[in-house]
Amino acid sequence: MDHFGLSEDLAELRETVAAFARDKIAPVIGDFYARHEFPYEIVAQMGSMGLFGLAFPEEFGGMGGDYLAHCLAIEEIARVDSSVAITLEAAISLGAMPIFKFGTDEQKRRWLPDLVAGRKLAAFGLTEPGAGSDAGGTRTTAKLSDDGREWIINGTKAFITNSGTEITVLVTVTALTGPDEISTIIVPSGTPGFTVAPGYDKVGWCASDTHELSFDNVRVPVENLLGERGRGFKQFLTILDEGRVAIAALATGLAQGCVDESVAYARQREAFGSPISAYQAVQFMIAEMEAGAQTARLAWRDAAARLVAGLPIRNAAAIAKLQAGEAAMTNARKATQVHGGYGFMNEFPVGRFYRDAKILEVGEGTSEIQKMVISRELGLN
């Protein structure tokens, strides 16, 4: 495995996670996927390995690493399965990270130890049925009670990952707290009036947890405000920028997984008396796939390096998300073609990859949104 540009510690991490994905996830995840079942056992193993704590300091039980380490783990897991990869990505980038970045000392002490250890999961309630790419069109409201001691929340959120598992402990919700004022508020699981709908019947990511959430006069203490009142919009833009780097790493993993599976299949599948790997049409198709995966990897690592260095990342994150999402979709289509009829069978990983790839051009900002961000950075608005 090529570790060019990685420190010895990061190279070792990548090898360890790759081995875990290959030996522990790959043999069993197809059955979880077919049953649309959340893989609690795998999540627990990732927790014991410290994967949920890679990007957090040791004072909260983390591994003292950074976002690059987090993304390396996500890419290696996504090489064999995206459901597990998105569970890890969302748990950190969307679940624990908002509390780490914007929470009070008390909020951090209360929630982070379990989240960082992977014992519990948190979700980020941003998207609504009528507000996806236009996240600023939030309609969920949060009003102070007459005595000023509670927030009263009403509204609906859609497509929320990690929001309904047995170990989900909270959802951070974006809501209107005044005219043109969006804030973020922590809503613990089980709060009266907070309802988690049955899981979606999804095209892909079938072993991950995704629900619609509704809030009917949900009351939480005023202290559950996360960060400053009215700063929710800026907060979730920061979270999304960082999350897009992680999603780009996930998409790169899927793109590389398509290469891995196609190379192995082409070597053993024979047609017209020779392995299909001997035919230039197949060789060129796989070579294009490899080039796409490597380009995506360079893009997300560039964005992650900027993030770790404390530099602005909005443009780099958008480029990485756009490039990697499109590489994943292209490679999934080509891998299915290399496999022929077997690529259309769910028993082959590439069939699962094909179903999982499309959301990577949609989730956490569509490809069109990424192009808008890049255009604006070029001064074209």
Automatic annotation (TrEMBL):
Pfam families hit by this protein: Acyl-CoA_dh_1, Acyl-CoA_dh_M, Acyl-CoA_dh_N
Q: Which UniProt keywords apply?
A: FAD, Flavoprotein, Oxidoreductase
Family membership noted in the UniProt record: Belongs to the acyl-CoA dehydrogenase family.
Positions of the Acyl-CoA dehydrogenase/oxidase C-terminal domain: 230-378
**Database matches in Gene3D superfamilies:** Acyl-CoA dehydrogenase/oxidase, N-terminal domain, Butyryl-CoA Dehydrogenase, subunit A, domain 2, Butyryl-CoA Dehydrogenase, subunit A, domain 3
Q: Which residue numbers delimit the Acyl-CoA dehydrogenase/oxidase N-terminal domain? A: 7-118
The Acyl-CoA oxidase/dehydrogenase middle domain sits at 123-218
UniProt protein name:
Acyl-CoA dehydrogenase family protein
What cofactors does this protein use? FAD
